[in-house]
């Protein structure tokens, strides 16, 4: 009976840590610089950005700049853990299986933050990306 309890406890801990726990490593390129994984793709009039999330940080650009009036598509890739990105002002709730599309209508600077609570809020300091909408 004790073995079953320990097995269940180990399984619960593994699932609990899968959301955000783990290392704080940043992907490095061969020259030692940080790898940028937020990729912008320009279609006809659609700007696409792919944001990569790892445990405790977004392993991507920390700032995205978009021109006012642009149509934007954000995609989220969870390399480690389960993350979502949200911003109430822009009406964004981005999940890995559901890209978010919007038109950048109001200039300003907005924070895109991890909206999945999986640890202390201090642990999410690196899980923020600045989105600037410019004229």
Provide keyphrases for this structure.
40% strand; five-stranded mixed beta sheet; mainly beta; single chain; 135 residues
Structure description:
The protein is mainly beta and 135 residues long. Helix content is 13%, strand content 40%. Strands 1, 2, 3, 5 and 8 form a 5-stranded mixed beta sheet that branches. A hairpin with a 4-residue loop joins strand 6 and strand 7. The relative contact order is 0.20.
Task: Estimate what percentage of residues fall within beta strands.
Answer: 35-45%
The largest sheet, given as strand count, sense and whether it forms a barrel, is: 5 strands, mixed
- Helix share of residues? 10-25%
Q: How many β-strand runs?
A: 10
Q: What is the arithmetic mean of pLDDT?
A: 73
Shape: elongated
Secondary-structure-derived class: mainly beta
Oligomeric nature of the chains: single chain
Number of helices: 1
Order of helices and strands: HEEEEEEEEEE
Unreliable runs, pLDDT <50, ≥5 residues? 5-43
Question: What Rg is obtained from the alpha carbons, in whole angstroms?
Answer: 17 Å
Brief sketch in words of this structure:
With 135 residues, the chain is mostly beta strands. It is built from 1 helix and 10 strands, in the order αββββββββββ.
Layout of helices and strands:
Layout: H1 2-18, E1 39-42, E2 46-54, E3 57-58, E4 63-67, E5 71-78, E6 84-87, E7 92-95, E8 100-103, E9 108-114, E10 128-134
């Amino acid at each position: 009976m004790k073995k079953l309890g320990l097995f269940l406890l180990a399984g619960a801990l593994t699932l609990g840590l899968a959301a955000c726990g783990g290392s704080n490593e940043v992907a490095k390129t061969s020259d030692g610089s940080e790898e940028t994984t937020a990729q912008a793709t320009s279609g006809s009039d659609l700007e696409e950005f792919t944001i990569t999330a790892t445990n405790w940080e977004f392993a991507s650009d920390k700032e995205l700049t978009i021109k006012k009036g642009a149509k934007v598509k954000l995609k989220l890739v969870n390399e480690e853990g389960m993350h979502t990105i949200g911003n109430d002002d822009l009406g964004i709730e981005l999940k890995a299986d559901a890209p978010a599309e919007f038109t950048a209508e109001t200039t300003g600077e907005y924070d895109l933050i991890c909206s999945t609570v999986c640890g202390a809020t201090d642990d999410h300091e690196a899980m923020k990306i600045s989105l600037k909408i410019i004229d």
